[in-house]
Amino acid sequence: MNSVEKAALRLIARAEQNSSGLTQKLLRRGFNPDEVKALVSSLLERGLLDDARYAELWIRSRLSQKKAPSPFWLRMSLEKRGIDREFARNALEKLLDSETEYSLLLRYLEKIGFLDAKNTDYLRPQLKNEGFSFDVINKYFESIA
Question: Would you tell me which CATH number, out of the four given (3.30.1330.50, 3.30.1380.10, 1.10.10.10, 3.30.70.920), belongs to the domain 1-49?
């Protein structure tokens, strides 16, 4: 086992990694880019590195810590971490059942200070832009009607 592999396995043992993040960490440590690329490919093939698994665990963490303002924020945050858009979308679809998404919507409304139902004209498009589903948005507006 060479030094780049040892470093990668230490990082993976410490916390779940994604391929982009692990690549950047290893490059910052001064390892050869070609070796890093080959190693990351090997780790992906062996299942020691899995971007889909990382996306799901990261979303679960943010939801449980109540640090997720909206589905859009979750997806964009994953993409900034180097997660493929499709992996991010799939993880959100898998983890955001209607009850979880509704709770997220209520927290979002609380955070933006939406306390009355008078100015709802701008709210529907804003919620859609934040990635909330049509069904969950409708459920909310039915509950305040």
Answer: 1.10.10.10
Query: Is-contact 79 88, C-beta < 8 A?
Result: yes
Two tokens, residue 41: 């490919």
The residue behind tokens 């945050």 is 77
CA–CA distance, 81 with 55 (Å, rounded to integer): 10
The count of other CB atoms within 10 Å of the CB of residue 139 is: 15
Alpha carbon distance 17, 22 (integer Å): 6
- Pairwise CA distance, residues 122 & 5, whole Å: 52
Are 22 and 49 contacting, i.e. CB atoms less than 8 angstroms apart?
yes
Query: What mean pLDDT is predicted for residues 48-62?
Result: 96
Q: What is the identity of the amino acid at 33?
A: P
At 141, list the tokens: 């507006």
pLDDT digit string, tens, across residues 2-24: 999 999 999 999 999 999 999 99
Q: What's the one-letter identity of residue 39?
A: L
Tokens of 10: 């230490």
